[in-house]
Write the structure tokens for this entry.
Amino acid sequence: MPRAEMQPSPLSLVASSNYFFYTSTYNRKRAGVSVIAALTLIYLAWVNHILQGVPSEAWKLSGSRWTAKQLKRVYRALDQQPIEYTSKLPPRLDRGNGLVGGFIVLQLLARGTPPADIRILDIRSPERRDMAEGLAKAVEFVQTDITSAAAVDAAFARPWHLSVTHLPLTVFHTPVVILASDRSTYLYGFLEAVNVNGTKHVLAAARSFGADIFSSTSSASISIRPVEPFVTAGEPRNFWQILDERDFSHPLRPRAEFFGNYPASKAVAERLVCAASNPSFRTGCIRPANGVYGNPTDNTVGGPLSRWVPHIVQSFVHGANVAIAHLHHEAVLLNKDAPQAGRPFVVTDPNPPISYIDLYAAISTLSVHPFRTVTIPPILIVLLSYAVEWYHLLPYRVPFLKEILPEIRGDLRHLQPGIISICTHLIGSDADARQAVGKGLYRLGYSGVVTTLEEMVLEILEWNREHEAEDGVVREKKLYTTSTSLAEQLRQVLAVGRVVAE
């Protein structure tokens, strides 16, 4: 007899149907995930392409690119004949000068101010070579922690030499901690302690001890709006910006509307300084436009020399130009009715903005040490910055993790979203500062004495001289304390101090 054909049971039909249903659902989900992943990658590739571009507006404002021939010619000229700009300094004023920056000290001395008329107040003694030779060696240094009102008062109360006691006093307030990447409220306290409270303490002491002029170094980064890299159309919002003083005529923005804690703290300090101005105590601020350089300890040229943004166009300002702006500022504030009092002035080098590729070309062409740029896709930097910030803030959000998670150290620690906003196209506008002083006009009469090309080449020349022995052998790179590394050291010191106090 033929075998009866096996008929599927109702149960097996249900199981088979369920299998088909689950398999189809799984395949659909997998296809959906694949489509989403593909679209995400396409979107990120598009954003990366946008971030690698230069807006036409920024490109038009930038200068021509530096060539190897041009760089070598300037290098040879500076090697044979250093830049001499003493004749371009404002006339000497018979005043005492306390709490000053290195380039201001050198310029005061160059125009004839005796060392006894100058006093440096700082947390550490000058590390620069040019501050340890000549007349600069004779300038008194008083170690001062400006986060302590008592320490600041004690420094200001220190007697001056008898030849100086009768002179009026100008205070050039230049101390600052720069941590451009931090933007969380968890991390604001340290910057507030130095940049805001430190300014309060120095401002109060200057007024109490009879100063009549207070010229403070602010920052053009105050006007930078946060860049939004993830775009839906066109270019990222705020991908290129003009840095000027227009924001000062408006109410102070909330902290969240600054790209980070650093500009937020400088904006608060700037308002404190400018609000304190009156006919008997004239105050105001100089805003250096974006990257300040001028010594191997800086982060702009010195940083790359000692250890993604080749297409980025930015304005730079040499420390000597910032210093000369302060001297012009002091001169206009001698007038008790000066309209320039109580406001900030942006200053830049006296040339169009450059591209970072110019800086990299200068270092790779002229440095005695090999220099090679490794270009990383911007989108990877952006994505990594959010990951680093998330990890870095975990111990603040979940305190018990502080004893478990290893701390991020080195340059990676500073790769957070806040840094993206200062790695975009930033053009400084110092029109008000550059115009000649006139009655009733908000002008400074500032004129930069050195160009970005000259001084970046000169800094590399000085670097080479420090690292080349007489026999031509190149020494290993020196390690300098940059403003960022110093800020990290100060953060740790202040944190230990708080623990001890508690």
Observations:
- The chain has a mean pLDDT of 85.
- Residues 10-51 form the longest helix (42 residues).
- The chain has one domain: 50-501.
